[in-house]
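Quick entry, no commentary yet.
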Amino acid sequence: MEEVFLYFKFLINYLITQSFTGAFLIPYIIILVLVGRPGYYLEMIIGQFSSREIIKAFDCVPAMRGIAIGQVFCVVCVSTYYSSILAITLKYFFYSFNSVLPWSECNPLWIQPCYPSSGSSLNQTWKEGTKSSTELYFINEVLHAKENINDGIGWPNLSLLGFLILNWTIVFLILVKGIKSAGKVSYITGIAPFIFLVIFLIRALTLPGSFEGIVYFFSPNWENAFSPKVWYAAATQLFFSLNVFFANIVMYASYNKIDHNIYRDANVVTTIDTFTSIISGCISFAIIGHLKYELKVDDITKVIKGGPGMTNTYYP
C-alpha cells in the first residue's frame, strides 16, 4: 500500500510540475522496455542464482561490492524519505474522520489571503495571490514552513513526530519476523491499493469535468517529447516505481527456488507497475479536470501548481 500511493504522488508531482503529460508516457515506455524490465530481470537473476543478500551476492565479483554497499545506502535514504511522507499521509488519514475537514475552511490565524476549499465561496472574486485553504493548511498546519532558513528550522512538530513513530512501529511489526511476516502482510499491501485505486477511479470519473483532465493527461506535448528533462523525469519515475537498482529485488529473489520462473515474474510485475502508474495518473488528472470545471478557469495548468506537496494540496 505504501509503495503504490507514494509512486502515485511521485508520478503526478513530476507530470504537473513539468507539464509533460502525454509526452512523458513515450519516453517512459521506451525506458521501461530498454532499462526497467531488463534491470528488474537482471536483479532477480542475481538474487535467485546466488541465494544471498545484496552484498554477499557480489562475492563472485569482489571488485564490484562497492555497488552493493552504495545500493544499501540508497535504500536507507529512500526508506527515511518514504517514512516522513507516510507520517504526513497518516495525519491526513486520521484527520479525515473529523466532521468538518480541517483543510476545507480558512483559519483566521493564517496571515495569507485565503479562500475555503469547501466550495462555499466559489462565486466570489478573489484578489491575486489568494491561496486555497488546502494549500495554506499544508504549509501552516502540517509543515509549519518558514519563509526562509534565517528563521531557523524550528522545533520538531509533535503531531508529525507521533505519526512518524506510528509509521516506524508499523514497519517494525511487518518486519519483526523477517520474510515470514513481510510475506503475509504483502497479501494485504499488494491487493488493497488496487481496490482503493479502482474506487478512486470510479469516483473521479463521476465528477463533472473529469474527462477533460484525462484527455489532457494523454494529449502529447511534442515540444517536450525530446527534452532531456522529460527523459530524466521518466527514468527517475521508473526507477522509483519498479525499485530497480535499490537492492531489494535481489534480496527478495534470493528466497526463490533455483528453478523459479523469474522471467514470467519480471514481465508480470513491470507490466502491472506501468498500468498502476497510468491509472494513478488518470485519477489525479480527472480530479484536476473537475477542479478546472469548478473554478471555471480556461487553462487546466492554472488549477494547481507543482511541487513536492502538490498532492496534499489539490487532492484534499
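second:
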Amino acid sequence: MVHINDLALLFIFIIICFVKNSICLLPPEFEWKVIDFAWQAGHKEFAIASNAYIPKNNLPTGIARWRDKLFITIPRWKRGVPASLNYVFLNGSHQQPLIPYPTWADAFVPDGAKSVSTASTVVSAFRVHVDRCDRLWVVDNGATNICENVRQIAPPAIVVFDLKRDSLKYKHFFSDAVLRDSTVFSSIAVDIVDNDCHNTFAYVADMGAGALVVFDLQHDTSWRLEHMHFQFQQNASEYHVGGIDFFWHDGVSSLALSQTASDGYRDLYCYPTSSTKMLKISTKLLRNPHFTPQDVKHGVEVVGEKGPQSQSTACDYDPKNNVLYYTELSKNGVGCWNLDRPFNSENTQLLISDCVALEYPNDIKMDFDGNVWILSDRQARFLYDKMDFTQINFRVLCAESTALIQGTRCQLSMIERAIAYIKK
C-alpha cells in the first residue's frame, strides 16, 4: 500500500526534477487543432462560402496578456483570415474560439476588400504589446494575402487601443520616409518615459528591410535607423524546424527593453531572426531624431553571439529577475540570459524544449504578474509543407518566471544578487 507520506515525497521529487532539468514540458494553457472564431449566428457559413474564412489559412503568431484577456494575432499570410487582432479569456476553455478585437465590425476584413471598415481595423499584425498605461500597441502592415498575391489595402500604421474602454486611442500612419518596398513590420516595444503615459516612444522592427523605426507619441512623428547588424547574416539563413529545411533572410525582428538606468535611459535588446548576434542600443540614441550616421555606427553594440542554430523570432524581458527570454526555433524551445552576467554560452541556457509542444516557438511575452507566455504554431509546416488538422497545431504555454529559472544559469546566487543590487 502507498502511504500519504510516500506520495508527498514523490510529488516533491517531481517538482525538483521539473525545476532542475532544462528540458521539460509545460502543460498548455490553450491549444487548438484549427483556429476558429466566436461567430455570430449564421455568419460562419457565409464567411466560408465567400472565402472570408478559410480555416487552414489561419496561423497565430503573437500574444500578449492584459488582465483576464490574452490577445492573439493572426497575420493575413493568405486569404481567409477574418480577423487579425483577437483575444480569448484566461478563465475560458482551453480550446475556446477567438473573439475579434475591438469588435467584429472593426476587425472583419472580407475577401477582396479594397479598404478598411473603420479606423480601428487592424489589417495584418504579427505581434502586439501591452503597456502599464493599459494600452494595446499594434503595428499594422496594412496588407493582405502576404504570401501569395499581396494587396495593400491600408497604409502601415501604429494602432493604440485603450484597453479599459476597448476603443481606439491613437493611430499613426508611417510616412514614405520610413518605409521601403520590402518593409514588413514584426515586433513593437514601448518605452514610457518618467511614468508619463503621453511621453512614450515605440520601437518597431522592420524585419523585411532590416531596420528600426522609432515613433514619438508626444510629437506624433517617426524616424528610421539603419545599421549593418540589423540585416540578416548569410551563415544564419538556413533553418531546420519540424523536419523541414528552409532559408530566410529576415532582418531585425525581436525587441525587448531593459529596466530604466540611473541616467533615465534603457537598453533595447534586439537581433535579426536570421542572425546569431545579440545587439544592444541605448534609448538615448533611439529617442533622438537628430542622430548622425556616426551616432548609429557607434551606438549599436554587439553584446555577444548566441551560437549556431540559434535563430529566434521573439524575446521579452523579466524586470524582477533581470532575465531576457528568447525563442529557439531550431531547438523547439526557449532560452534565457541574466543581464547581470556576460552574454556567452556559459551564462545562457535552453530552459525548455519539446519537439511537439514547442515546434516553432513564435512568440514569448512577460506579463505584469511575472509569468512567461509562449506561443508555438508549426509555422514552417504552414509555409513550406502542410498542416495536419487532426492534431494539435497551436499551443499557448505559461510558467511563473522565478520558478522557471530556479537552479539554472539564469538565476543569480545570493552573492551575485547582492553585488548586482550594489551596482544599481
